[in-house]
Amino acid sequence: MNDFSLTANQRRALDCVRHYLDQHGRPPTLREISESLGLSSHSSAQDYVEALIRKGALERLPHHRGLRLAQRSRAPAAASLPLVGRVAAGSPIMSEGNIEADYAVDPALFRPRADFLLRVVGMSMRDAGILDGDLLAVHRSQTAEDGSIVVARLDDEITVKRLKHRRGRLLLLPENPDFEPIEVDPRHVDNFAIEGLYVGIIRRN
Fold first, then answer.
1. CATH code of domain 8-73
2. Fewer CB near the last or first residue (10 Å), C or N of the chain?
């Protein structure tokens, strides 16, 4: 059983380490953990790591980047997914201040594995089966293939749209004819970033 009696923030730090290992084959540095979680200092990341080591979720190795998942935490934990609420301007999407709640949903139910949930606002993706109030399961990624449904940051607003590449421009396309496409000039990348890929929805009755 993968129960380390972790706090919500400690579990997010553990998920950060697990996700980084899956993506890069090596553990993150304290700086990378801090940036991913939107922490104000490396000491906060250090506190989380030390707590995870004490609770047996992580093991320390005697070299640089010397962390690994403990045996019990190597299988994906049927734990929870953080629900991202309103995202503060300029902050990483997974910053502590952006997390509204944690939902008891197994991230491994989705392919690829979900990293967070986002509440859908509006009906711009109606024809893709994504409705107002749905919880969107999102896999964190900074890249996406043409035609993917993505979570994107545009001028510090978060939007869900289908990504299309067209004549050197990026289009964020709604799935509802009542809404207009959003055109992005990749030469001005400061105001645009892909935050993740849509991997499923949770609909509450």
1. 1.10.10.10
2. C
